[in-house]
UniProtKB/TrEMBL annotation:
Residues 44-152 form the DUF4352 domain. This is DUF4352 domain-containing protein. Residues 1-22 form the signal peptide. Keywords: Signal. The keyword Cell inner membrane does not apply.
Length: 162
């Protein structure tokens, strides 16, 4: 009888130990899902996306009547994107080729040749940048930013263009 009691008690302890190991894994999974949800959050004007080597803030998006007389694409609209970029890396951070824009129909748009910022910013410093894009379809556009030399997923900003 004692033998049966010890076997039952040992079984209960083993099951309890297995249950304790499973609980943290569930918690880790939940935290991982929450982290992914935060990472994939869609941003808008005024929001900041932070990366390992950079902090990017979308300051403003506006349309402009300015046109490049030599441009042959003839977009329906030209937008001006104003941003602040802070270098968090130890080395200089290049900028000016790190934005991708999709118009209201989901088409990838090309940079438009106006007064666009391009260069490098020193470690620990900030730059106020400007980039222009030709837009074929207005509506809600997406602006994707990721540092030029990075394996990070891009931050996605959604902006209504009228």
């Amino acid at each position: 009888m004692k033998k049966l009691f010890y076997i039952g008690a040992l079984s209960t302890l083993l099951l309890a130990a297995c249950g304790e190991e499973a609980a943290p894994k569930e918690k880790d999974t939940t935290q991982s899902v929450q982290a992914e949800a935060e990472k994939s959050k869609t941003l808008t004007v005024g929001d900041t996306a932070e990366f390992k080597d950079a902090k990017f803030t979308l300051k403003a998006v506006s349309t402009t009547d300015a046109r490049n007389e030599f441009d042959e694409t003839k977009p329906n609209q030209v937008i001006k994107i104003e941003y602040e970029l802070e270098n968090l890396a130890k080395d200089e951070l290049s900028y000016g080729m790190d934005l991708t824009v999709y118009d209201g129909a989901g088409n990838k748009m090309e940079s438009y040749a106006l007064d666009n910022s391009m260069g490098a910013v020193a470690s620990g410093k900030k730059v106020q940048g400007v980039q222009h894009f030709g837009i074929m379809e207005g509506g809600k556009i997406e602006i994707h930013y990721a540092p030029i030399i990075s394996f990070d997923d891009a931050a996605v900003f959604e902006v209504e263009v009228k």
